[in-house]
Design a protein that fits this description.
single chain; 229 residues; alpha/beta; two-stranded antiparallel ribbon; 6 helices; globular
């Protein structure tokens, strides 16, 4: 008797994800879930990995709805687009690379994001934050994920504080290739010593409080708030 060949279970098409090509990253949650955004190949431009992004937005789950967001070194824009996907009301994207800024605009068009809910600015984040009136009120959530080697998070944070673009209620996401605890303490000390750097919304001595922190591979990511005493 000839045996019937054993049946082979075919994979469920709904469970199959389209492979990600080089220069592409997938939004992982919210209304744009599984949509692709693209980015150019440029030094220092590396989207936050899916695993870390999932952790970040789990941290923000109670705060993301209707939030006013800044993606300060946008790159692919996936952090900002992910925020809008999950319910943020507005996101400001700042990106230095001119070609990537164009790709951000293209991604926003492809996702059909309303023009009133986002703005894309091409330029150096620390300079844009000092020279441009970005928002009628402080940001609720700020993403600072610059090229690791350049330590741009320090001038960006300084500009946000001195321009009164963040308050003690703002949630600040920092991503780097090392623990920034000591450097954040040094930055706070420097700001406290310079009376001209005190923002109108801040009273007393500034410090940075770490709310959450995780490490994925060589990447150290944390969620912080300013505190004032």
């Amino acid at each position: 008797m000839t045996k019937k060949p054993s049946s082979v279970r075919k994979p469920n098409k709904k469970q199959q994800a389209k492979p990600i090509a080089a220069g592409e990253v997938r939004i992982i949650g919210g209304q744009f879930k599984r949509r692709i955004v693209r980015f150019v190949e440029a030094e220092g431009l590396r989207p936050t990995p899916d695993r870390l992004r999932e952790t970040l937005f789990n941290w923000l789950i109670a705060d993301i709805h209707d939030a006013h967001v800044l993606d300060s070194c946008a790159g692919s824009g996936v952090l900002g687009f992910e925020a809008l996907s999950r319910g943020a009301s507005h996101c400001t994207f700042i990106e230095m690379n001119a070609l990537q800024s164009q790709m951000l605009r293209r991604s926003a068009e492809q996702l059909r994001i309303d023009s009133d809910s986002h703005q894309i600015i091409q330029g150096s984040a620390e300079q844009v934050l000092r020279q441009t009136h970005l928002t009628p009120r402080p940001f609720d959530i700020v993403f600072i994920d610059p090229p690791y080697a350049q330590d741009l998070w320090q001038p960006i944070l300084t500009a946000l504080i001195t321009q009164s673009l963040i308050t003690t209620e703002t949630l600040i996401y920092l991503e780097a290739d090392k623990d920034l605890t000591d450097q954040l303490s040094q930055l706070a000390e420097s700001l406290n010593q310079d009376s001209a750097s005190e923002a109108d919304t801040m009273q007393g001595l500034l410090s940075f409080e770490c709310l959450k922190q995780t490490k994925v591979g060589q990447v150290v990511a944390g969620l912080y708030q300013l505190s004032s005493s």
